Structures are given as structure tokens and as C-alpha cells.
Amino acid sequence: MSRGLFRTVGLTIASAWLFSSSAGVGAQAASAPQAAASGEVIVYHAGSLTAMFDSMAEAFGKATGIKVTHRGMGSVEAARRVTVGREPCDIYASADYRNIDAWLKPTYADFNVAFAQTAMVLTYLTSSPHAESIADPAGPAFALPATVPNAAANWYSYLTQRGVRIGGSDPSADPGGYRGVMVMQLAQSFYRIPTLYEDLHRNYAVMAQTDRLGANVDYQFSYEHSAKASAARDPNFRYVRLPREIDLSSPAQEARYSQAVLSIAGLAPTDPQFSMRGTRALFGLTLLKNAPNREAAIRFLQFMLSTRPGEGLSLQTAFGPEPVAPNGPAVVTKDDFPRIPSALSPLVKIGL
Q: How many domains does the chain have?
């Protein structure tokens, strides 16, 4: 494999990695007021939420006159910018809700709302090597939106072949990056093949921003909602679903997911490495304590968490990851619930 195709980043797999195979609802509140207003809201969010925030910013702006400026990037990098970099920001929305607990609370934020969930899937193109063998031959053909096949029972054997290129984003900047590595770790214990992680990782490298599936990469582990959007744009794009035991989607598999551990860089250059442990893939958001546009930001969060037609939940369902609950609301811990602004508390429930 030519490493010149990738920007190499050292990945330190924590020694704690195990190879075992074991395994009150708030009422809907009124949405953001419809009267026009002035102001701005600044949102730093996971890159995989860009389409969702595009739609929400447009709808909210039309309803209120408030401009939403949002920036998509790796969630760890976003946390780095709003803490170490002290860049002005009102709302932080991460692909991994634990980033808020790890790096923003209690200095930069008071609470953590889990608002979305997803699964990791395996993506590729019809031109990728062994593409014809990756999907379960006994299952349905790939045909969005109706059907997405499961991975073949031996999908991993094709990814370990010489010359196959598996790409991923930088784990020290993006949860999608460390979750992709965790899928490979979990596959080793699930399939009970002692060298599987090493064999997969041999063909894996961190992608540069200019690398693309089909050009520099043959396969990539990705969020299902992102894969679905890519498949809608490209008729040659494919993805398969992985077993629940390794796709980071099932609450019932939390104990198994926690066996995966990856060491990533801390937020500041002088910070020690941080041990990130596997868990269900939940997205989280918070309002920053030093939000420069606090009142406007709360109004946007009211809109974002609303279950009214044409507002938050429906736009999230159409353009982003699945809501934590199909009909809402978002969830918080018992400890965080009292810290939620009163305007938002009817839009969340205790559930973490």
C-alpha cells in the first residue's frame, strides 16, 4: 500500500484493549417565536451534520430573521477551537456526546444533550476491489431507499487482501476516525480471529483532505446517514450494514463496545493523550457558557429540539442522523437536567 496517498498520523492503540468476545418525559413546548428579530447564532458542529444545519439555519432564519453561521469540522477539532483556541461560539454539536463531558464541562459548558444516533457502515464504490463480494449474497440488492444489504459473513477477508486501501479521518480530530478504528478492533473479538485487527490496520491509513473514495481509498467506515446521502448523489456508491455487535449502534451492546479503546491527542499540544473508549454512537450538543449570542442561541435550540412539523426533528430526520427517539425528545442525564435553561427543559427528558 502506498502511504504517499495519505497524510500519516500515528495511532497509539491503548494497552487496555481487550480481545474478549463478551458482550419522566417533558411535554412539547412552544417552538421558537415566529416574529422577526435581529442577531446571529454561531454553531461549531461535526462535519457530518452540515446538511442538517444548512436546512435548519435556512428555516430558522426565515422564521425569525436571525442568521445562523455554522462551521462543520471534526468534533474534536471543534472542541479544540472553542476551548484552547477560544474562538467565539454559541452552540457546540458533536458527533460524540462524550466530547462535551470530556473537554467542555464544567469550564465551558453546563449540560450535555444527546439528540441523535447513528450506526457505522462499510462504504465503497462498485469499482472497489472485491465490491461484488462485500454484500451478503443471500440478501437483497442495494436499492435506496428501500433496501440496504448486510455485509457478507466474511467481508473482512476482502479488506485484508494485499493492495486494498481502507481510509479514515484523523482520530485526533474526528470521532468518525476513532470510531472506524474501533470497528476494526471489535471485529477481531466478534469474529474470534486473533490477528484480524492487525491485518485490517495494515491496509488502513488516515486520509488527507484531498483523498476520496474511489481515487485514493477503496473502503471506508462511515456514519449511515452520511453514506445514505452519498449514495443518493452517486449511483456507483454502495454501503453495507455491519453486525450490531460492532457497528456502535445498539444500547444492548454497550458492554461489548466499551472493549475498544483508542488513544488520541489531547486538545492542547501539552495535554497528555486521551483514552477514548467505545460506546454507542450518540451525537450531543450544548450551549457554551461564554456564548456571545446567548438569547438568540437559546431560540435556535428551541427550534432545533422542536418536534413541530417543519422544524427541528423533521429536518434532522430528513437531512441528518436519526433522532435518539423517533418522536423526540432529546435526552440528558439526571444531573444535567437541572442545568438546562428553562426555555429548553420541556424539550428534553432524562434518559442517559
A: 2
> Which of 299, 291, 349 has the alpha carbon at shortest distance from 114?
349
pLDDT tens by residue, 131-158: 999 999 999 999 998 899 999 999 999 9
If one counts every other C-beta atom within 10 angstroms of the C-beta of residue 3, the result is: 9
Residue 334 covered by a domain: yes
How far is CA 338 from each of CA 110, 287, 330, rounded to the nearest angstrom? 10, 14, 15
| Residue 145, Cβ density class (10 Å: 0-12 exposed, 13-18 middle, ≥19 buried) | exposed
Three-class SS of residue 331? Answer: strand
CATH code: domain of residue 133:
3.40.190.10
The percent helix, strand, coil of the chain (3-state, each to 5) is 30, 20, 45
pTM score: 0.88
Task: Give the DSSP H or E segment for 69.
Answer: strand 67-73
* 258 and 321 within one domain: no
Query: Can you tell me the distance from the alpha carbon of 55 to that of 39, in angstroms, rounded to the nearest whole number?
Result: 18
Average pLDDT of the chain?
90
Residues 85 and 189 in one domain: no
Same domain, 141 and 260: yes
- The three grid cell numbers given for residue 34, joined into one nine-digit string: 415566529
The sheet with strand 166-168 has its strands ordered as 204-206, 166-168, 219-223, 120-125, 237-241
Mean pLDDT of 48-53: 98
Three-state secondary-structure class, residue 5 = helix
What's residue 38's pLDDT?
55
Residue 319 scores a pLDDT above 80: yes
Q: Which of 47, 84, 52, 80 minimizes the C-alpha distance to 209?
A: 47
Domain assignment present for 34: no
Residue 33, in any domain of the structure: no
DSSP, collapsed to helix, strand or coil, labels residue 290 as coil
Rounded Cα gap, residues 4 and 8, in angstroms: 8
Q: Kindly report the length of the chain.
A: 352
Q: In terms of domains, do 109 and 241 share one?
A: no
186 DSSP assignment: H
Range of the structural domain that residue 202 is part of: 3-22+120-264
